[in-house]
Hints:
Elements (H helix, E strand, L loop, with lengths): L7 E2 L1 H11 L2 E4 L3 H4 L3 E2 L3 E2 L2 H6 L12 E4 L4 H12 L5 E4 L2 H7 L4 E2 L10 H6 L1 H4 L5 H9 L2 E5 L5 H11 L3 E5 L24 H12 L4 E5 L8 H5 L4 E4 L4 H14 L3 E7 L2 E7 L11 H4 L12 H4 L5 H18 L8 E6 L4 E6 L8 H11 L14
Parallel strand pairs: 1-6, 2-4, 2-5, 5-6, 8-9, 8-11, 9-10, 11-12
Antiparallel strand pairs: 3-7, 12-13, 13-14, 14-15
Helix pairs in contact: 9-10, 9-15, 12-16
The structure holds zinc ion (ZN).
The site of zinc ion (ZN) has 9 residues, from helix 13.
Amino acid sequence: MVGTAVPEITPREALRRVEGAGAILVDVREEHEREAGMAAGARGIARDELERDPGSHFHDRDAALLLICQSGGRSMLAAEALQRQGYRNVATVRGGTLLWAAEGLPMARPDPGAPPRDEDFHQRYSRHLLLPEIGMRGQKRLEASRVLMLGAGGLGSPAAFYLAAAGVGSLRIVDDDVVERSNLQRQILHVDADIGLRKVDSAEARLSALNPRMEIEAVAERATSDNIDRLMDGVDVVVDGADNFPVRYLLNDACVHHGVPLVYGAVHRFEGQVSVFDAGRHRGQAPCYRCLFPEPPPPEAAPNCSEAGVLGVLPGVVGMLQATEVLKLLLHVGEPLRGRLLHFDALGMRFRETRLTPDPACPVDRALFFLYLLCPRQFAVGQPSGGQ
Ligand SMILES: [Zn+2]
């Protein structure tokens, strides 16, 4: 059949054949074009899709197919492509949908009353939508969720990038630091031109550029017992990217109090740790950070990155493990790192896992008593932050 010219028919003739002779009218325009209205009775199959696999739509190569597009050009090309694939009874509608409408022939909405399809959403998250464990339901769940990110430094950078890309709807980033040149070796949210700017501002600019759908709340404050409840408000998961122990303990206690899971990460030189502390929702069953380390170490026993050094890529690995746990928690898939402490040794390139059990003598309740009842404003928070 190669070389046979595709017959062109008028819109009126096409309508007659559809109504009287059982011909199939196919609108080959893109979905967003068809939303404005299509010839009544037409089936919408975008040209690419039709040409790629016509057999999945039309088994019978003798079926009477009438292709229509906007003005007749694309439907002709599509009809020729179908001919080459062995379809023997294909015609195209001259003048397309424009002429069809101009002649006053009946038009229809593809799905009357349906809201227009969100193309940005479908394209951006198409690889998630393909996964049965996520799909439309999971992606909508991500879009409806809010994550608190404490710190826009070494751990917060990779975690925030991937959470933004993955479609977490709202990210509240808390950091009172400004970008320094020594941060750029690992804090990939920030670039050279950001030096001197507030980290939350450079983070917001970079993340919005990656995913404009996302809502970013940039909070240039240090987390303290005074503002922690406001920072926790409406949050589904907390990411610990803190670089000092007082904030880490404050976060732990607040997460227990509010029943929000805490995705913990820490780095030191060539080693990192990750865990999920979910004691607030599983009291007595899941450990909290204080079950592991009941009290903060003295400052001299716990040097931070600015004192001890850190391999630049290490917070990248740990921060992405944290982002993985956040997505699992939000999606309710997989087995969270709850009651398990994952150690990563970059020099040996080894992961190992330690079981964590809740400590019946955990001091968290005493800590909460101090934090929320006794003397909330005297809870000591405020070690200098060196920028993880
Ligand atoms: Zn505990």
